[in-house]
């Protein structure tokens, strides 16, 4: 392949590096390198990289556009075959920690398993034409392979090769990440959405993401919808974004870019949304979800993505950064991030914030914790917390929280089951419910809550919730309010009132029989709080109590020793609750919708993190004053301790809810909800969808 004709801006040196790497990779795929069993590992991984080079060349030459849908599907699945579930894929993949441990043994199994996974970043690089990544990841592979050329190397040699790769390229990684967020000239995905023929499903295979039946079925279904329905969906999304700025008093006229996040298959809605953003004067930045360990945050996907080839594979590699994370690397990463923001400071200054389209109905997943899986030490967990906190601080310096906003909306996908089309129709209804009627009903709740010093929440039946939440004390009730009357703007659909609780005096037990958080199931989850902080937690996912502790600590506490209760809210969208019950999908609703289906409690930062000093008002004109707690107040004196950079909502379903009552200073109480039903005057209409199920 004559790369020079395709990449005019590249130097001869860079072109030569790519050609030499490709030739050496091809040689290793044929001949192997070093002694067995390592030679087999390098042969197989080199063969995979050969497929990536082939895909890259087909993209450059335009040959991929001559292929049929079936041919594209075959090539796509061949790129991901190694990690697809089953005996012909992941069961015998070196990216599988169990298989790597069995075949390679100590001391190299974990490192080579890691290496097999990291090479998958080259797929995205090939399709996007990201030359630096397409160059350096195969070079990492070759550097590691060459260590085995003369025999078995010392463990430390392989560790150093991997460590210094991520240390030395931190500047490149940081610049690509920051630029991807704020620079609309990086338009790979935006161009695809705007320019491809979306009626021809071959467009899905231009991404380089793994494309399953779900993505094809989603795109095909959207192609059956009339244009007015697509516009209705897109308008709900973009108008919510615009309203967020309006309500926050932030001028959109000063902004130039919006970060658009979505799931592959929804391009028809995204295209219309981009037209709407164009009219607002906003250009899109659209980046891919993390493809390698440096940017990975557990199993969470931030950016555009498909469902992925294998959720167990993603779980197995969620903590791969453990292989090279130490204090020196953490500091290097933060220095690189600050330098990157400095380089793109002007673009960051006109960045408006993210607009997210989420999905729900993904195949349910019960992870297996495998021997050989990389995991963080306690020291590394603290470093992750430090990195998250400092990264948030740096980002907020260049993109201040009080100068940006966001919106989130969610849609179902076909894998939710046979009722997909009915559920989709119902979701459109939920996402476009009448704003005004909810404003009035929720105002009744806000008015009642503002009269109390706290609330008592108690479960019923087997639910052991018994919790008191303390409220902010109003100085001028005629002009101030504790709870935000949340309508369909930044947080779609409509349906909640929420506050930042006072931590001192907040405590008790929060219990749910089953809940999904960030795509993972938690069974019989029980959390104990004292003065607003988590003091204990149990669940029954695994037989070993310690595994349950590790699971919660990693995926809910995000490796913090504890977290505060950052939010108390009452969800009012009983229409969404009814949909969940009618179609048996309550456990599969995204937190965005699930949090509107009952009272919920968020562990971590408040809803106003980095925006505490912004002045906002409810629709009735009252100023929302409960915007901070004892932790976020530290932003003025000890900013490193003010934020946790996480926020996880836990919802109690109505059928498990005994009561929510407002507590008054004189000892009296006002019932808001009793036995799962709204009983406060003015809110009775919310009970309609609950008939027959609560």
Written description of the protein model:
With 694 residues, this protein is α+β, with helices and mostly antiparallel strands. The chain has three domains: 3-168, no CATH class; 186-409, 3-Layer(aba) Sandwich (Thermophilic metalloprotease-like); 434-664, no CATH class. It is 40% helix and 16% strand. It contains 22 helices and 19 strands. An eight-stranded antiparallel beta sheet has the order 12-11-10-6-5-17-18-19, covered by helices on one side. Strands 8-9-13-14-16 form a five-stranded antiparallel beta sheet, covered by helices on one side. Strands 2-1-3-4 form a four-stranded parallel beta sheet. A hairpin with a 2-residue loop joins strand 11 and strand 12 (533-538). The radius of gyration is 26 Å and the shape is globular. It starts with 11 loop residues before the first helix and ends in a 16-residue tail after the last strand.
Q: Helix content range of the residues, please?
A: 40-55%
**Structure class:** alpha+beta
Strand order of the largest sheet: 12-11-10-6-5-17-18-19
- Overall tally of structural domains: 3
Q: Main sheet, how many strands, which sense, barrel?
A: 8 strands, antiparallel
- Tell me the fraction of residues in β-strands, as a range: 15-25%
Overall outline = globular
Distance between the termini: 66 Å
Number of strands: 19
**Number of helical regions:** 22
- The gyration radius over C-alpha positions equals 26 Å
Runs in which pLDDT lies below 50 for 5 or more consecutive residues are 1-6
Arithmetic mean pLDDT: 93
